[in-house]
Amino acid sequence: MPNQPAADDDLPEQIRVRRDKRAQLLAAEREPYPVSVPRTHALRDVRAGWAQLATGEETEDVVSVAGRVVFIRNTGKLCFATLQEGLSLGDSGTRLQVMLSLAEVGEEALAGWKADVDLGDFVSVTGRVVSSRRGELSVLAGAWTLASKALRPLPTLHNELSDENRVRQRYADLVVRETARDMVRTRAAITRSIRETLHRDDYVEIETPVLQLVHGGANARPFRTHLNAFDTPMTLRIALELFLKRAVVGGVERVYEMGRIFRNEGIDSTHSAEFTMLEVYQAWGDQRTIAALMQQVIVDAADALGSRRIETSAGVIDLDGEWAWLGVYPGLSARVEQEITPDTSVGVLRKLAERHGVEIDPGWGAEKLVLELFGELVEPELIQPTFVCDYPPSAQPLARPHRSDPQLIEAWDLIIGGMERGTGFSELVDPVIQRDRLVAQSLAAAAGDPEAMQLDEDFLTALEFGAPPMGGLGMGVDRLVMLFTDAGIRETILFPLLKPLG
Hints:
Elements: H1 13-27, H2 43-49, E1 58-74, E2 78-84, E3 95-101, H3 102-105, H4 107-116, E4 122-131, E5 137-148, H5 163-168, H6 170-176, H7 178-200, E6 204-205, E7 211-212, E8 224-227, E9 232-236, H8 241-249, E10 254-262, E11 274-283, H9 287-305, E12 309-312, E13 315-318, E14 324-327, H10 328-336, H11 346-355, H12 366-377, E15 386-391, E16 409-416, E17 419-426, H13 431-446, H14 457-464, E18 470-476, H15 477-485, H16 489-492
Parallel strand pairs: 3-5, 6-10, 14-15
Antiparallel strand pairs: 1-2, 1-4, 2-3, 4-5, 7-9, 8-9, 10-11, 11-18, 12-13, 15-16, 16-17, 17-18
Helix pairs in contact: 6-7, 7-9, 7-15, 10-12, 11-12
Catalytic activity: tRNA(Lys) + L-lysine + ATP = L-lysyl-tRNA(Lys) + AMP + diphosphate
EC number: 6.1.1.6
Binding site for Mg(2+) 1: 413, 420
């Protein structure tokens, strides 16, 4: 069986040696995993409090510090080690040198250190704060104790994890790579900034069900499950939208949720089966007011990270520049040098797809062909922030018909760096039109479309109680992190879903 523990004889030598050390500690009645150890200062506290020490200067200030051993050098009468502590909002994991000398700790403690401590172990060291002869701030140990014995050797910078194993063993990746720890801090700064922006503008954060009887709010294939208590089929949510709109109907006029959603679809460098979505709904707003909010959310996140200019392989993205608006049909027309309108025939669009090497499905109608052509030919070239707007109705069944052109809807996608980062609508609140749209979706689902929405009678009932005019947005938080870090989605998600080994 693939998860069967290996017999001791089959284990790598390093693991067997470390297990033997653990056994020896227990035999000597020394705890390899004590409940607590001395710790009066974090490593960052020592660095901040004694940063002014001159080279070779010693103090009588005694501290107890603890951390993971990430470097070790044992000599005859003097041992050196570097401890690393966990990351915080302020840094990616401070390191500090500790020194153990025969004169300070005694022969038994020094011998125990050499025999028992390996790279990766957690230790506690108590001693005086000093600066070494080379000017390295250090703790000169008077005593030490093991805090946790590592039974597996850590990868080193000279023998790094492969890209695949870095993702599978993120815990090890975080220990050895500062850039991995930086990603955690960056994502935390972004999500905190999003909430601060919304709270400042009086939005209320709520939580909506993950398990749902009816999947809706997006065109996506759901994960299906079964609720034993009710003997009822259920799905994991594919969007946050429909319950947030119920809240607006009930009077929560500025509402949002940032949470995981689940789509049983392809996985690649920009898509994950589970990811974090932000959805916001604003009573008395529309696609323009909600676009302004989206822009503010992203600019504030950039400020939290320190710069509104983002370096990418496609060029510098300037968030202080113009955030343009581009209609789907005018944008596609300019790209193919031919006027495309909502009345352009399927035959013309198929010829355009063939001419430009865009793969299409023979069953697609005109609106779907326009969306595919735009996505393949125009979207990748939109590097600066662009609100792509005036979509055909089939693009977003939950968006309001355009106030000046019934062949369009009031919806946009925000493209930055050639990739969609979010979407927004003037939300459809007419329950009669919404029913017609959802009936059409349910018929498509019955005909075999796995991504079509189901008919949600309870949502329609909510709309029939009356919903105020509103704008709504959805933004992939992972894709926002990707924008600021120039990393793939597997790097921005701390523990992404991966294909099982074997």
